[in-house]
Every structure is written in structure tokens, then in C-alpha cells.
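thought: fold this chain, then report.
action: predict
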Amino acid sequence: MTRTKTIVVLALAAGLALPGCAGMTQTQQRTVTGGAGGAAAGAVIGAIAGNAGMGAAIGGGVGLLGGYLYGKSKDAEAAAYEQGYKQGQQSK
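observation:
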């Protein structure tokens, strides 16, 4: 498979997978999005280096981890905001 075909296939796969995120939490959505984006970027870099499959696997794993950690960080931020908001409402 040529580099262009690999990139097109991965882009289409990511585009088709993302609408399935409707029933997920924001952290789950960020994890999937990070994985898909990482796999696509890894495939491009891997294709340039000579092994698109290995690049996609590594990029997907790194993207999943990054998306998950980012999602957890945003969850903690939202929880802290909610806690502060509730404390502010109680003191009125």
C-alpha cells in the first residue's frame, strides 16, 4: 500500500469512528480522539520512515494515553470548579 493510500484509509477510519462517541463521557471521547489522531500521525511518520503499521501502533498507543490523561485532567478541573461554585453559593 502506498503512503497516500495508507493516509487516506486511516483518515477515513478515524472519520467513521468519531460519530460513535455520542454516548461516551468526555474522558472516553478524548481518549478515542487521542488514539485516532496519534495513529494517523504515527502512520504518516511511519510511512516516511518505512513502516506505517508500526508508526500507527506506536502513535495510537501514545495518543490513547495522552487523550486519557488530558481527559482526567479536565475532569479534575471541572470537579474543582463545581466544588468552588457550590461553596460560593453556600456563603451567600
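thought: worth noting. The radius of gyration is 18 Å.
final: C-alpha cells above.
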